[in-house]
Amino acid sequence: MGKPDQPTDTLTDRLFATERQPEDFRFDAAVARVFPDMIRRSVPGYTTIIPMIEVITEQYAQAGSNCYDLGCSLGASTLAMRHGIPFGDCTLVGIDNSAAMIERCEHYIALDDHSLSVSLRCENIQNTELSDASVTTLNFTLQFVPPEERSALLSRIAKATRPGGVLILSEKIRFESEDEQDTQTRLHHEFKRANGYSDLEISQKRSAIEQVLIPETLSAHTQRLKESGFDRVMVWYQCFNFVSMLAIKAD
Ligand code: GEK
After folding, report:
1. For residues 39 and 185, what is the distance between their CA atoms, to the nearest angstrom?
2. Gap from CA of 130 to ligand 1 centroid (Å)
3. Cross-strand pairs, 70
4. Pocket mutation for ligand 1, best pick of 15, 50, 141, 188 (most atoms within 8 Å of C-beta)
5. Coil/strand/helix, residue 211
6. CB neighbourhood size of 158 (10 A)
7. What pLDDT, on a 0 to 100 scale, did the predictor assign at position 203?
8. Fewer CB within 10 Å, N- or C-terminus of the chain?
9. Domain map of the chain by residue range?
10. Ligand 1 pocket by Cβ (under 6 Å)
11. Which superfamily does 29-175+210-248 belong to?
């Protein structure tokens, strides 16, 4: 496995450390600046999922195809894909609608010494052009698309995917059983506490994000992926209420 350079020269996430007025979370410059620290300390399993995206990409990338990282942020998943793609004639595209993210992402892509070129687009993934894809990644991005608009995006991805191609879909999920929902949420919060977040940071971040990050159940995701045109769906990773799925289009 190659070793994509992970961004390390960033600040510690203290965005919610002091009392602040509740307002919806946005992927602005302040978030982009602390993003690597924020996602690593907030998303259980993130540091495992990134290198596994490289492994999965290596298995499913097809010669001469396009590979997409939708909601690429600073390019951690893009770089994993870049190192996994075994063909020099593939096109790798990272897309994010936050200008602050794309600006920093360009910097990290330039620092990485792999020869496959990466094209970055500051666009809404809901209307960006997709075609001839073998591997597409939505690594914790679909959860920010309004639920009623998710089917249209997934159908466009499935339609753009070659036979034998895949979508890697990672999401925060919710659970049908109230007991499991409470237990997994508590464990997630313990994970954040163990990573140095205070109770105030955890509760303020929760209030800021709950209007914009809408989790769904695993069965809702599976059903929608199948209705959208993927033939097989499996969970390849789960840590508490964070899951990564592999949706495969039949050969
Ligand atoms: C990683 N994949 O490090 N169009 C384009 N971008 C969007 C949209 C949209 N409609 N909605 C949200 N985003 C990355 C992590 S972060 C996950 C992905 C998180 C972008 C948004 O700007 C942000 O950069 C990203 O999706 C979600 O593996 O913060 O939990």
Report:
1. 17
2. 17
3. 95
4. 141
5. coil
6. 22
7. 84
8. C
9. 29-175+210-248
10. 27, 39, 71-73, 76-77, 95-98, 101, 124-126, 139-141, 144-145
11. Vaccinia Virus protein VP39 (3.40.50.150)
